Amino acid sequence: MHDVGFMAGLAALGVVVGYASGLFGVGGGFMLTPLLIALFRIDAGVAVGSGLAQMIAVGLTTARRHASKGYVDGRLTGFMAIGTVIGTTIGKFVLQRLSGMGKITLWGHTTPLVNITLNGLFIILLVSVAIRFFYADGEEAAGAKDHAPLRWPLLLPVSLPTSGIMQISLVSLSLGGLLIGIMSGLLGIGGGVVLVPLLVFGYGIPLRTAIGTSGLLVFVSALAGTIQYAATGMVDLWIVIPLMLGATLGVQAGAWHCHRLKTMHLQRAFAMLVLFVAGIILFKIWG
Amino acid sequence: MPEFAQGGTLLATTWRVLLAIGVPLLWAIASEMVVSLFHRKKDKC
Fold first, then answer.
1. pLDDT (tens digit, 9 = 90+) per residue, A61-114?
2. In angstroms, rounded to a whole number, what is the distance separating the alpha carbons of residues A79 and A148?
3. Which of these, A161, A209, A244, A285, has the minimum number of CB atoms within 10 Å of its CB?
4. Is residue A56 less than 8 Å (CB to CB) from chain B?
């Protein structure tokens, strides 16, 4: 067991991560893992495993909060979840294959070439997403637009009544889940920060439903990830408990704000979050 | 490595996994029950 100050610090960090999750439907691993390693001197594997375990509580609470307002699409989660889990495995496999690409020295630091390439591409994607969010009109983020580019209604059509969509391709949804999973496996991120823009701009899902549904997908992927890490002893419950105590409080505040903010303000706040994630990745490459 | 995580038998591994997913699940369910109670009380007022 750790000392009281250490646990209180973890609980405070949990509040911040939980707030981000409640407001944006993201797991928060992009800030939690580096902070656990840098501030709390926790081993990287245990930081990831314990972070995933607390995301079970955070994802479930986030989904429950948004579901109480009708902002979670269970069918959509089901259609995407299988692709996400398979995609994560493919992403990890590809990453292992690519890790032999060699190293590169930039600004006096030597880092694996694959890290620079993948993270560089990811930063470009995140900046594009942020710009798209900044310039999207409120109506677009309100969703259910007929001209959403990835609906493909003629290919195995299914309906998503909760999201207000009559016809959308099951193949397209599964491929979307697979793509998110591959990115997650390649980059070691949960994927919520990319999933929400994909749901809004790709499928025309309303922003709040995309956020609530992303929370449920965070829960599903955290459950799968925790089993893997716990089996190898990489989950420390004395880290998980204070984190999730703080996080479940933060989720309540974040979801409360999400339901009250204007759509335009929410999408701009999401754009800021995406830029923040891009900044963290840039800092990691630089460091 | 965390003290409860030591040991390599199948039973120990199963116990570790059950604890790691069970504790957050139970906490999420319990906290949601408290929040719904709070909301019900607020609605009555």
1. 999 999 999 999 999 999 998 888 888 888 888 887 887 777 777 777 777 788
2. 18
3. A161
4. yes
